[in-house]
Amino acid sequence: MNDYLETECVEKIKKECLLQVFDEIDSTNEYLKKLVKREAISLPLPVLVVAERQTAGKGTKGRKWVDSPTSLKFSLLISFAGESKRLALLSPYIALKLRKVLSAAAKKEVKIKWPNDLYCLEGKTAGILTEIIQKAGTLYLIIGVGINLASDPEVNRNINSLAGSLFKRIDPGELKRIRSLILLCASEEIIRTVKNLPEELSAEEIKDWNQSDVYNGQRLRLIEGERIVSEGQNVGIDKKGRILLQDGNQTKAFCIGEASLRP
């Protein structure tokens, strides 16, 4: 752990979470799902799992996460005591809050793409995978986050496109410090967000999203698997976190699908 994370940050994280750090793991999300299933009692504290390497990391829509030595991979397990209807807002709301954390770290604006991708330096920089498990009357949220801290040419070759990152490069001597600070700030923000998850976005939060939307005003397709859900001009999100697409005089709200630029 001392080789991967700074001791000072570790001690601060341990005040909020049960922290587990692995040199290598298949998937931090899968590890936490197995943990919930095998534990006989409820887990009182958030559990934070960090991996230096993931061999079977997952992205959204079942995609494979392409690992890199300069990426940060972690998952949080948090019990949820709020109204279950609030969970419809979970994924975009976490993305909205995490955007501010990463913008502050990078000292540049990080953009957002509905529902939960973050963009910086011309490409996707961070992704969020949320999963919900119910056991013995308790709802557990598993929130997996992958962040490209610095550009990695090998990742670009593997995905046949340009991946984004918070920094173009990081001095090797600074990587541990930056990784630790971002993990500390991001995990604290996610825990705080889940504890205070609202039922609806405020007018200010909607404005923040729309101003930061990487596809703001552009013509989009919403895709679910192989199916095109809808097409239209992206005019933002509503208070429930749904994307709004305008086609002619009609505006419709959607809670499913993945936003993609219309070819």
The major pleated sheet works out as: 7 strands, mixed
Mean pLDDT: 89
Number of helices: 6
Supply the CATH architecture of the largest domain.
2-Layer Sandwich
CATH 4th-level superfamily of the largest domain: Bira Bifunctional Protein, Domain 2
* CATH class call of the largest domain: Alpha Beta
User: Nearest-angstrom radius of gyration?
Assistant: 18 Å
Order of helices and strands: HEHEEHEEEEHHHEEEEE
Percent of residues in helices comes to 25-40%
End-to-end C-alpha gap: 46 Å
* Number of structural domains: 2
Strand content: 25-35%
Low-confidence stretches: none
Structural class, please? Answer: alpha+beta
Shape: globular
CATH topology of the largest domain: BirA Bifunctional Protein, domain 2
Number of strands: 12
- Strand ordering within the main sheet: 1-2-3-7-6-5-4
Features:
263 residues, alpha+beta, BirA Bifunctional Protein, domain 2, SH3 type barrels, 2 domains, 7-stranded mixed β-sheet, 5-stranded antiparallel β-sheet, 12 strands
Description:
With 263 residues, the protein is an alpha+beta fold. The chain folds into two domains: 7-204, Bira Bifunctional Protein, Domain 2 (BirA Bifunctional Protein, domain 2), CATH 3.30.930.10; 215-261, SH3 type barrels. It is built from six helices and twelve strands. The strands form two sheets. Strands 1-2-3-7-6-5-4 form a seven-stranded mixed beta sheet, sandwiched between helices. Strands 11-10-9-8-12 form a five-stranded antiparallel beta sheet. 36% of the residues are buried. The mean pLDDT is 89.
